[in-house]
Amino acid sequence: MCRYPSTDCFTSNSSLTSIQTTTDTLPIFNESVSTCPLPNNTFFSDNSKSFSLGWTIFWSILCFISTLLTLLTFFLDTSRFEYPWRPVVYLALMFNIHSVTYFLSAAMGRGLVTCPGNTFVAVGSSWSWAHTPCLLIFIALYYSMLAAFLWWVVLSTGWFLASAWQWSHEAVSKLAPFFHGICWALPLLMTVAMLAARLAGADEATGICFVVRDASNSSFYGLLVGLIIPLLLLLSVGVVLLVLGFLGVLKVRAHMRQGGKQEEQQILEKLMIRIGIFVAIYIIPATIMIGCYFYELVTRPSWHPLSNTCSSCTRANSAVYMVRVFMFLLIGVMTGTWIWSHKTLQSWVRLVRRFTASTHHHHTPQKAAELSAPASANNAMSHVPANNYSYADSGLESL
């Protein structure tokens, strides 16, 4: 009896034995000849998968470089990243982990990640040691994505408190333990719940393990409740806080115009431009990415495998998957825009001068004091008592 409808039957026992031997000895990491997933469950061509790999690696490299520069800049001068902007550092860290996970997935290959034992990892599969690469990739990607969205909400919260309610950065920083507890613990609990419910599965298009939609009902609720709804809620909360913060800033700006506070008005105007850019580079890509997941949720049951040659069949659109990957990694790339300033250049110039001076043994105590003076001045300005609050002292312009 034929294994697949499109496969010719072999009546010869020797031929059948030859076919079985060839299939059993196939290396599971060889994507071009592996029978995983099975032909009647294959929705993407080899060309699409190859392009997906290159596309993902390219944007992962850009995201890794951008976020790494942000993290290194933070370690060069931590005083610049006081609250409410400190969450930018944790955002960069999560996107950095996300990009590195794509590297690891590509290095291990589809055979180990999505097809252990030449069996495609479906939602609801019983976990075994062979699924360890798949589970590790899922944990890293899912946790980093949820944590990134949560830290973005914290960033929006800090902006709202500092701009609309005029909290000093000391006052906002007192909420740091609460922020850390929520942003690190909640994604962990969600990840454990998804694994316990066995809602992780292999993504054929991108070659990773994540929250996916397949023919099962559990995958529908996993993608909807485990990813789409949480991301929509977090995005909505962040947008509301940003809007409220803008309204508060507009009121304060009107009072400043009447009071003749030109310096603080200029700070506010620069801040509003910066936040406007932030809204564009995060909210728009995040919305498009969630839309791509919604596309998968709704259309996946109607897809026909490539083995079905009907002309009017509904096919999987690999471009949607490419856009989804691009949009999330783009947010990580653009996270680095927060440090693109003259202060960042000064931080790296000071580092180069210190390294050069120590190399040539011309680094005198007087020069050391001169080089560290800008950082000391920044520290002094960043700890102004809350009772003498002004926008210049709030830390909003520190980046």
What is the straight-line distance between the termini? 69 Å
The H-level CATH homologous superfamily, spelled out, is Rhodopsin 7-helix transmembrane proteins
CATH fold-type name: Rhopdopsin 7-helix transmembrane proteins
Sheet with most strands = 2 strands, antiparallel
Describe this structure in words.
It is a single chain. The chain is mainly alpha-helical. The chain has helices at 13-24, 46-76, 87-108, 110-113, 132-163, 169-173, 176-196, 217-259, 262-299, 318-335, 342-359, 365-381; strands spanning 200-203, 208-211. The protein is built from 12 helices and 2 strands, in the order H-H-H-H-H-H-H-E-E-H-H-H-H-H. It has a single domain, classed as Rhodopsin 7-helix transmembrane proteins (Rhopdopsin 7-helix transmembrane proteins), CATH 1.20.1070. The longest helix has 43 residues, at 217-259. It is globular and about 70 Å long.
